[in-house]
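Hi, here's the filled form for the chain we discussed.

Project: internal
Contact: R.S.
Residues: 81
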Amino acid sequence: MQVRGYVKVLNAKLGRRAGRTWTAYSLKVVSEETGEELKPWFSFGFSLPPCRERDLVSFTADRSDAGYWNIVTKTFRNLER
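And the returned structure, exactly as it came back:
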């Protein structure tokens, strides 16, 4: 799925496993074209995305077998910077 829109929410989920802490990041996006919030959350993995809330971004997202949308990090572009 090709996505282009404004970051509405940048979420950080903290966790701990096998004595190690981790942070997983995900985005909620509002479509630039329609102004409507896109339904899925888009996972950025364990790296802090190079964006802030309200930034215009574009990226490709692939759906996992479990039904989650994962951002293809090499396609992520912050169009505000």
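Let me know if anything looks off before we file it.
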